[in-house]
Each structure stands twice: as C-alpha cells, then as structure tokens.
Amino acid sequence: MKIIEALKKKKDLLRKASDIKSKIKENCADLDCETPVYVDQRGEITKWLQSYSDIIKEIAHLSISILRTNLATKVTIELGGIFVTKTISEWILRRKELAKLQEDVYRVLTDNGRKESYVSQPTPNSPAVTIKRRLYYDPTERDRMIELYRSEPSKIDSTLEITNAITDLIES
Q1: CA–CA distance, 47 with 41 (Å, rounded to integer)
Q2: Which of 10, 68, 98, 114 is 20 to 30 Å from 41 at the Cα level?
Q3: DSSP designation for 98
Q4: 84-117, pLDDT tens digit by residue?
Q5: Per-domain residue ranges for the chain?
Q6: What are phi and psi of 74, to 5 degrees?
Q7: Long-range contacts, 99-106 (Cβ 8 Å, 24+)
Q8: Of 159, 169, 172, which Cα lies nearest the Cα of 4?
Q9: What pTM did the predictor assign?
C-alpha cells in the first residue's frame, strides 16, 4: 500500500467511525412505548460498538505505519538553488511550522520607522548635520529570504504529493 492510499483509507475509516457513532447515539435508548428500529436493538448496538473499536484499531495501525514511513523515508527538495534532504516527517514539520517562523524573522528586519533627517545648526558655531539611517542587514537578501521561505511550503507540498503516491507504506 502506498502512503497516499493509507491516508485516504484512514480518512474513509474516520468517516465510517463517525457514521457508526451517530447510529449508536440515535439508537442506544428509547422509551418502552416506542417500537425499536431493529429487531435486536441491543445486539445492533453491541455490533456497532465492536465495529467502531475495530475501525479505531485499524486507524491506529495505519497512523503508526504512516509515522514509521515518514520517519524512515528521505526526500530531497530544491530550495533556493540548494538541494536539501530530510525525512518526510522533517519536511512536514518545516511545512507546518518552521518555514513560517523563518519567514517571520526576516519580516522583522525593517527600518523601524527611522527616517533620515537634516538638522540645522544646533548652535551658531556648529555645522548643519545630516542624520543618516543605518541598516544592519541587506534589504535585497531579506527580500530574497522572505520569498524563499514563503514559497517553501508549496514546494514541500508538491514534492510530498508525488512522494506519497510512489512510496510504499512501512507496515508494522
């Protein structure tokens, strides 16, 4: 089974579990003046509870297999002209959290509202002074890094979509 198949199966199992839970909720009790929906209402509830439990076990098995596969499978992605190799799990972490954190730190590199100014003679004998703004970073490099980290999630997504389609699941 491929990773993508496991992910889709897990999603389907979650839907089935939700459906069973709804049936249990709707049919777990009634009043003695009502006609039960099923001939053996208690038996149906018992079967649904068992089925729900079996589905949860299968979801757990698939989830663990996906995690094992994600930790063991290395993927190389080209970012900013550099080829970087990480496990699927590491790429997922970069996609969800780390790329945005790195983008955010470059976004705080600003002039902090400081503007250059011209100060006329503070005293009669002193010359006029121009106060210049100093930046302790390269604005071009900042812009390049912001774009790099901003586009990183989509590069990760597209590469992992292909990886998920071709990588076999490591079963336990």
Answers
A1: 10
A2: 10
A3: I
A4: 999 999 999 999 999 999 999 999 999 998 888 7
A5: 3-72, 74-166
A6: -95, 140
A7: 99/149, 99/152, 99/153, 99/156, 100/149, 100/153, 102/145, 102/149, 103/145, 103/146, 103/149, 103/150, 106/142, 106/145, 106/146, 106/149
A8: 169
A9: 0.82
